[in-house]
Batch of 4 targets.
Target 1
Amino acid sequence: MIHFKKSNGFTLIEVLVALVILAIALLSLAGLMVSTTRNNSAGGHLTEAATLAQDTLERLRVSPLGYIPVTYSNSTTLNSGITYMWSWVVSQPVSTLDTITITVNWTDPIRLQSHTITMVSTIPTS
């Protein structure tokens, strides 16, 4: 009778189960990476829109109020390829202050969702 010495290695079933668990974990990580990339892209677009609104607001704040149109709209395509439509409205809710409301709209090309950011500032009436 032949006696085999007990092996200390892994069986084929144990290796296959470990590979299946590893494959499931890697697939879930791949899905997480896609979601993270989309959210990072959306954050970048939001930053671009906020920067555009802030730049416009700063330009308007240093301009004499008599030269600023009460309403205005325009569109800009930035390096990201996104077209931002922006507009402003100047109102005078109080006789000593003018309010400038800047609105920026864009559509996320990945999710095809429309987004809007609004900035409001008051400046003293000259």
Target 2
Amino acid sequence: MTSPHRVVDSPVGPIGLSADSSGRLTGVHIGSHPDVEVTGHSDTGHTEAKERVFDETARQLEEYFEGVRKAFDLSLAMEGSPFQRRVWAELHTIAFGTTVTYAQLATRLGKAGAARAVGHANARNPIPIIVPCHRVIGSAGQLTGYGGGLEAKRLLLDLEAAASGTRTGAGTSVLGV
């Protein structure tokens, strides 16, 4: 995993951003990261393309946290297995303000019974929030696993519920736990 080169403040805490030299976002790290000060920019490895993607990502995240942005439009570079990439692509189809269960997501992928594999792919999502793995919940509607912590997951779901006017119901609206 690439160390973040920019950290932005957010309602879920500091978010570290990583990008490759061509200006594609490679990582979103929720919470503190040991390699970067939360105060802003590092002074190494920055290219103009990285600066542009950091600025644009920070702008879009701010709009998201204000409840204005429902989807992100960023250039992403995500490394993973073919199955992980399929899961991550499917995450983009979960509408803002809605949730699905791990089992429902597995079924969408034509892999009924592979809920655990979907969960493992979600856990390896290098670009949370932008690739909305927080919209996947447990089969009984419970919040389960999130790299940024369950409180961050709850905050993201509550933010989307408030912005979209939705409430409880896996597969149709944001969890209102």
Target 3
Amino acid sequence: MKNKILVTYSTCTGSTKGVAEAIGKTLSDLGESVDVIQMSMVTDLSSYKAVVAGSAIQAGKWLPEAMSFIELRKKELREKPFASFLVCMTLAMKKGESYRGTVSNWMQPVRDNVTPVSEGLFTGILDIKRLPTLNDRIKFRLSVLFGVWKEGDHRNWAAIKEWATDLNIKLKSGKL
């Protein structure tokens, strides 16, 4: 029986995992049965009534493994309610909200495969020591020095909960 929602994610430094867990918790608190699983661990979508997929953003793109997940499963994902979210630091920049349209465009490759019933755009964590490459650590360290970003956790838990609550309403209404 398809009575569960899958919340799946691809993360670089762990920030997106925390967002996925918060989405899963909110949906669970609203009475849904939810599995929160890293994309690389998902093998079957048949037992889920809906899928929520999210990725960290690097260089304006979903992580490669996240896009592969979408592309390989697009037929299955088109057959059930699908929502997507991304986590990026661009929205945490000074005047970051002015980049919301640009950040939304980074969801286009996902939209080209599956039409989301809802999209969430969230800020993440800037923890320079956890960045994967020396080049990234140097670039972000300089950006912090010049005031582009502040290091730390920029996730807006209230916005994440609000989005997940709205998504739950859409899923229950059947008006997708």
Target 4
Amino acid sequence: MHIRSRREQSVSIPKARLQVHFDEGETIWTENSRKYSIDAVKQLASSARFVLDAQWIDREWPFAESLLRVS
């Protein structure tokens, strides 16, 4: 997913000590989406020393939110 600047502008992010300039029409990449099975999510979490604590799945889209905790 990308968002597009409607005008030329500079955006300041003080906590990151960052200022970013955007031209009119310039986009920024805001999301990267992947498809994983429930087992794959558990395996990825485990390999990063997390445990899949809960998962909420919208079967219509399909889309899931996963709650991970440090193991």
